[in-house]
Amino acid sequence: MRTLLISDLHANLYALEAVLADAEGKYDQIICCGDLVGYNPHPAPVLEWTRQHCSYVVRGNHDKVVSGIDDLDWFNDIAKEAARWTIAVLSDDQRTYLRDLPRGPQTIGPLQIWHGSLRDEDEYVLSKGTAAPSFPLMETPIGFFGHTHLQGGYFSKYGRVGVIGQVRKGQTESVFELEPDLVYMVNPGSVGQPRDQDPRAAYAIHDSDQKTVTLRRVSYPAHRTAEDIRRTGLPDVLAIRLIMGV
Ligand code: ZN
Asked: Cα(181)–Cα(161) distance, rounded to whole angstroms?
């Protein structure tokens, strides 16, 4: 089974379209690690695409705030303004879909998915130190998560944790073979708002037969999303960070 893993789509339709074109023919199912909406100007089409095409989805913190599960006060002013705008443009039915998304972790055959960490769906796993407590909680040899918008991840063997890096600039992919005595947690990176100094949309493909994970980056017309951000009146800083990948 080849699984396309996507996370943190954040209402960026042009980035999502570029990922799907790039990954075409390379996967059998699509799984999403949360944050369909927030920050960017295409929440309804991205949500409807997810509803139609993803086999499994876990909720992200933005999905929780926009659907009313969590309070807006969790967010900084920019995220809050974008969330208010998103709430206004989504239908009741679409917000209900977000509200009903399951929390992570979810176990799906040979893998698990969650948004933040295994001990807290809203925790940012940004270091070996924050990754380490999740490894003993894993029920499968590999899991996928999001939330940080940083592509890469961690592996563990006998309690020692190592780092998996993002695809290097100038390259489009990095492939790693899964070793049988290691446990992995992989962040496919963010489709809709990368923050790892690389503005290209990020995703991953897990091949459970070949026992590989491929991390990929693909360019997309970020200036078009930026134009739509400005046209809809969302905060301009959201356009700038897309162009810069921060
Ligand atoms: Zn996010």
From this structure: 13
Question: Average pLDDT in the 25-30 region?
Answer: 98
What are the extents of the domains in the chain? 2-244
Say how many Å lie between the CA of residue 160 and the centre of ligand 1. Answer: 28
Q: Running DSSP on this structure, what letter comes out for residue 55?
A: S
| Listed residues: CB within 5 A of ion ligand 1 | 8, 35
* Closest to 193 in 3D by CA, of 239, 236, 228: 239
Q: What is the pLDDT of residue 159?
A: 83
Q: What percent of the chain has pLDDT over 70?
A: 100
* Integer Cα distance of 144 and 206 in angstroms: 10
What is the pTM assigned to this prediction?
0.97
- Cα of 144 vs centre of ligand 1, distance in Å, is 14
Query: What is the mean predicted confidence (pLDDT) over 153-169?
Result: 95
47 Cα to the center of ligand 1, angstroms: 14
Closest to 227 measured CA to CA, from 66, 85, 14: 14
Gap from CA of 35 to ligand 1 centroid (Å): 5
DSSP-derived pairing of the beta strands 160-164 and 152-157: antiparallel
The CA distance from 206 to 215, in Å, is 9
Backbone angles phi, psi at 64, to 5 degrees: -70, -40
Long-range contacts of range 175-178, CB-CB < 8 Å, 24 or more positions apart?
175/212, 175/213, 175/214, 175/215, 176/212, 176/213, 177/211, 177/212, 178/141, 178/142, 178/211, 178/212, 178/213
CATH of the domain spanning 2-244, picked from 3.40.50.720, 3.30.70.100, 3.20.20.70, 3.60.21.10: 3.60.21.10
